[in-house]
Design brief:
Blueprint: H1 12-22, E1 29-30, E2 37-41, H2 52-61, E3 74-79, H3 84-87, E4 91-94, H4 100-113, H5 128-140, E5 145-149, H6 155-168, E6 172-173
Parallel strand pairs: 2-3, 2-5, 3-4
Antiparallel strand pairs: 1-6
Helix pairs in contact: 1-6, 4-5
């Protein structure tokens, strides 16, 4: 007997991208409680994506202002329609689905300009100010910054995100 499973929405692109980066198929666990800057590219990690309840609780831990010394994380979201994650964003950018690849390429280039060792070519878009601000924030908060990509992104884009997160020392467990 053969067992076959099909899911129309899955994370295979994410797993394939991570496998390409680290030579193993791994499941990322985002430690959002340790992130001061979060950039979401087409991901609804607070809404319908995997581990959304866990992600919401950990994300909210860094949004709790208890005294004048408390800090709050910053959330940048690029998405093609409003989601719970986008509604929670400090900086939200509405981008057509087919332009998310260009946006990530431009973000990689800006990070390269700021000193990250990543292979990226110069790309310019009308969203350059948002991308520059996100890149600067990611670099200023190395070790406490993370990029999360949506399941609809290609394995190549997830590969790029995994490499960038590795260099940022992003709070991710695999």
């Amino acid at each position: 007997a053969k067992w076959a499973v099909y899911e129309s929405v899955n994370n295979e692109n994410l797993y394939d991208g991570i496998k390409k980066a680290f030579s193993k198929k791994l499941q990322p666990i985002y430690r959002l409680e340790n992130a001061q800057v979060i950039v979401s590219i087409g991901s609804d990690f607070l809404g319908i994506d995997d581990n959304n309840i866990y992600n919401t609780r950990k994300f909210a831990q860094n949004r709790n202002i208890v005294d004048e010394n408390s800090t709050m994380n910053r959330l940048y979201v690029a998405e093609n329609s409003i989601t719970p994650t986008g509604a929670s964003a400090d900086h939200r950018l509405n981008v057509a689905q087919h332009n998310l690849e260009q946006l990530l390429a431009e973000l990689a280039y800006e990070l390269k300009q700021l000193g990250l060792s990543v292979s990226a070519k110069k790309v310019k878009s009308p969203n350059n100010l948002w991308i520059k601000a996100a890149a600067e924030d990611l670099m200023l908060n190395r070790g406490e910054s993370i990029i999360i990509g949506g399941s609809q992104l290609s394995p190549e884009l997830h590969h790029l995100i995994a490499l960038i997160n590795y260099q940022l020392k992003a709070p991710i467990d695999y």
